Amino acid sequence: MGIKTLNVNEDILNANDVLAENLKARFSQSRVFVMNLMSSPGAGKTSIILRIIESLADKYKVGVIEGDIASDVDSRKIAETGVDVLQVNTKGACHLDANMILSATDSLGIDGKQLLIIENVGNLVCPAEFRLGEDIKVMILSIPEGHDKPLKYPLMFTESDALILNKIDLLPYTDFDMDELCKTVKAMNPAIQIFSVSAKTGEGSERFTAWLEERIAGK
Amino acid sequence: MGIKTLNVNEDILNANDVLAENLKARFSQSRVFVMNLMSSPGAGKTSIILRIIESLADKYKVGVIEGDIASDVDSRKIAETGVDVLQVNTKGACHLDANMILSATDSLGIDGKQLLIIENVGNLVCPAEFRLGEDIKVMILSIPEGHDKPLKYPLMFTESDALILNKIDLLPYTDFDMDELCKTVKAMNPAIQIFSVSAKTGEGSERFTAWLEERIAGK
Question: Are B200 and B47 in contact (CB under 8 A)?
Answer without folding.
Answer: yes
